[in-house]
């Protein structure tokens, strides 16, 4: 697994041992960020200077990819100690220590945000149904505001987390859904 685009393109990322983390595949990340850049509702301004939240960070690949492609700052949440160690190592390898914050936090019960994020990545364990609770908690604590771009990865056969998606893309057993917070 590696960063697939931007200033840190090719940087190999560390993943925690075991099956507790399911990182988004390089191919899916490339397709997602291509979509963000080229979709009618996307474009370079979407990422440039954005503050992003990688709410179920695992390896931090989504947030680090956003930083590599122009985001100004990324916050990473994970409750798993091995995942946080991998994220910290990846942040260090990318030399993004001053542009990141890594928290032991549950997306359903997050700390209060300083300001809403422009982009929120939600890639929780598939079988746990965590997205609705995360959306409630993140909205309640100010991480999500009207217009925030939400990007969720779910099992391909799971119900859509979005009432009115901007786009959906299937990648094998995964479905990526993008929508704006109402």
From TrEMBL:
Q: Where are the transmembrane segments?
A: none
Q: Which PANTHER family match?
A: METHYLTRANSFERASE
UniProt lineage? Bacteria, Pseudomonadati, Pseudomonadota, Alphaproteobacteria, Acetobacterales
Q: Which UniProt keywords apply?
A: Methyltransferase, Transferase
Q: What is this protein called?
A: N6-adenine-specific methylase
Show the GO MF annotations. methyltransferase activity; nucleic acid binding
Please, which domain of life does this record's source organism belong to?
Bacteria
Supply the Pfam families for this chain.
Cons_hypoth95
**Which InterPro entries does the record cross-reference, listed alphabetically?**
DNA_methylase_N6_adenine_CS, RNA_MeTrfase_RsmD, SAM-dependent_MTases_sf
Q: Which Gene3D superfamilies match?
A: Vaccinia Virus protein VP39
Q: Does the keyword Transferase apply?
A: yes
Disordered: annotated span: 1-21
Methyltransferase recorded as keyword: yes
Coiled coil (residue ranges):
none
* GO biological process assignments: rRNA methylation
Query: Basic and acidic residues compositional bias: what residue ranges?
Result: 1-10
